[in-house]
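Kindly draft a polypeptide, keeping tokens residue-aligned:

***
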Amino acid sequence: MRILSVILGILLIVTGIYCFFNLGVAFVSLALFLGIIMMVYGISQIIAYFASKKNGGSSGWVCFEGILTLAIGAIVAFYPLTEFFLAIWFAAWLIVSGILRIVASIQTKRNFPGTPWGFMMFLGVLTVIAGIYGMVNPLVIGMAMAMLFGIFFILQGINSIVFGLGSADAKKKK
């Protein structure tokens, strides 16, 4: 198992490096991966809304963001989109998500005095700015997404190698 983990780690690192040198190819394949991740995130937001609704600690905006993210994730994953439209969809999602985060931070400040809300507000504003920039420069946001994809693979590869080598050390100590 540890050899397989190390081999998988090496393959992930090579894939991550390939993504850096072939951003266009990485970006095209990113659509399916990104769509699935967005759907999982959307479902988790919906679940979080209903789980915290019992305690009165959740805003309807959390559920709305979850539904929106789930829907956009399904579109990104299962409809043939060009790179341009994927970048535009992602930028639009950033803008809407940022606005909803700003609204949620204002509601948190109003409904739960003493609860930290400033960082949420900051992230909301930053997300809106990133979304607007992505609308103006869709190619830049697309390439940035592909680079993040490469970074993800490299980090997962390192993690897999460390796990594989670490499990070998653990066996020796027993």
The CA atoms of residues 4 and 158 lie 13 Å apart. The chain has a mean pLDDT of 83.
